[in-house]
Amino acid sequence: MKATPPESPHDVIAAARAWAEEWLEEGVERFERATEPPRAPAAPRTLSGEAPSAAPAPAPSHQSSLLEPPPAIPAGASLEDVREALGECTRCGLHERRTQIVFGDGNPDADLLFVGEGPGEQEDLRGIPFVGRAGELLTQMIEKGLGIPRASVYICNIVKCRPPQNRTPLPDEVHTCQPFLDAQIAAVRPKVIVALGKPATSLLLGREVPITRVRGQWQSYRDIPLMPTYHPAFILRQYTPQNRRLVWEDLKAARERAEESGAVFDDAS
Ligand code: SF4
User: 67 to each of 62, 92, 246, how far by Cα in Å?
Assistant: First the structure.
């Protein structure tokens, strides 16, 4: 159905507000100013005025993933093996401004594994995922909400180096780092994965998903049950009872599903 265009300034403002709220819900934190790629020189024309059919393809704008081939991480690799394969990685542009790689934190045999988006400032400084404000909230949700010690779960991100100004990682960065995330999950072999926010959920499902629509609904990553929920940073921005209740329900469902599969959790108290 074709949308009816707004008719008054009030309509325009209301529509803009609705879009902004939707973007916020999707986890969009900022917009990058689009930088125009350098224009390719005009293709030579034939005498008839048509472009030749075999025009060269434009070069990709970001070739960092070509700097180093993806690692061959053998099946059955442990977390230590994966960390060793990662090394002092420079496979994508995020290495340039990082303080250190933020690999992962927690129990290498965890039944519950959380995947976020990328390290923030505190994480970059300390080398541990989810230790800033959003991390404190996640820790509270795990320890006070679920009653599980944080050390008994495993926490990692889709990229291991901090994106500048905490921007959303670019597709090239995400896909360059993805083999390490896949290998981490394979090494931990959790009973349940909790994907925090849209980027992590979309990457693990292999398709773009609106987090508002998929959160709370069971998905699957390589036959492991996956529960998408809001990122704690989003909850901090939209600290409403409803959002907190929704995340609480998602985490409770994740714990119950893991327990149904035989997980036994320590008590956080
Ligand atoms: Fe390497 Fe991942 Fe860091 Fe990029 S984000 S440099 S792929 S560890």
Answer: 11, 8, 42
- Beta carbons of 251 and 134 less than 8 angstroms apart: no
Quick check: CB of 101 below 6 Å from ligand 1? yes
Q: What is the pTM of this model?
A: 0.77
Among 65, 83, 101, 166, which is best to mutate for testing ligand 1, by the most ligand atoms less than 8 A from CB?
Answer: 101
pLDDT one-digit tens code per residue, 67-89: 566 778 888 999 999 999 999 99
Produce one character per residue of 65-85: b if its CB has 16 or more CB atoms within 10 Å, e if not: beeeeebebeeebebeebbeb
| d(CA 158, ligand 1 centre) in Å | 9
Rounded Cα–Cα distance for residues 229 and 249 (Å) = 9
Q: What angle do CA 109, 180, 26 make, to 5 degrees?
A: 95
**Quick count: other Cβ atoms within 10 Å of Cβ 43?**
11
From 84, 167, 176, mutation site for ligand 1 pocket: most ligand atoms within 8 A of C-beta: 176
How do 219-221 and 224-229 pair as beta strands? Answer: antiparallel
Give 113-147 pLDDT, tens digit per residue: 999 999 999 999 999 999 999 999 999 999 999 99
